[in-house]
Amino acid sequence: MIYEVFRQERKGQPFQHAGSIEAADERFAEAYAREQYGRRGESVALWVVERGSIMRIDEFVDELNRNYHRVDGYPLKEKLKEARERAGTSRAPAGDR
Amino acid sequence: MPARAELLLEIADDELILGWRDSEWTGIAPFLEEDVAFSSIAQNEIGHARALYELAARELGTTADELAFDRQPDEYRCSGLVELRLPEWERTIARHVLYEQAEAERLARLKECGDAELAGLAAKIDREEAYHRLHAEMWHARLEGEPRYEAALEELRPLVEERNGHSPELQELWDVMTSVRRSQPAGTTW
Known about the structure:
By secondary structure, chain A is of the alpha+beta class. Chain A has helices at 26-37, 76-87; strands at residues 2-8, 16-22, 45-50.
């Protein structure tokens, strides 16, 4: 069985994917996770979860390409340039970006 | 030799020789995760040996390296269990399980002994051995009842406390283990 391991580097920080291990059961998974991701003080906590228990979502429908739903939908640089041209100022003062 | 140094050498030799034997699985263990885990156990055992040799060396006025590598094979005090070359995984696991059981009892006794230095070191070693025991116990649970594993336990159990003489396999291990050190040109130091 494949187990996915997430580790927390310091208390309060988010858990991040560390890697995966192959193990016969949960006991082996615990031992191998400790060994590979916790032995050198690199983690304060681990999440070990069997891969089948993870819900994976990888289809995101966007038929009409509504890019204004996305953060990259607004190229702010272009809009700012246009606004400045209209206002007659070539550049914003430093520190005002 | 003082009794305390003798005891230290007995434990240190067990740890060093077992560490060597376990490290023979590095790169060829049954699967990658186990390779990492078992190699790390081997490395821990040699680390324990080093700490124990250092204690003994202070008492005997020598160094850990000299105790580990400059004695003759018949001077080693390790048990018959650890010196065998075991190229079969089930026999290796049987030895691991038997050793960890015996080691747990030995460390429990040492932690209670009147010698603060030795009791302190035993407590330190025991904190690492806890993970070795976890590893040994999970393998035991997995292999228990398998005929080859059960046979290996029966075969090896009498060797745990066997300390009268050595098998030829210790000599072979010694040849390899000390070859680099013995190749040192006269008058030089590492």
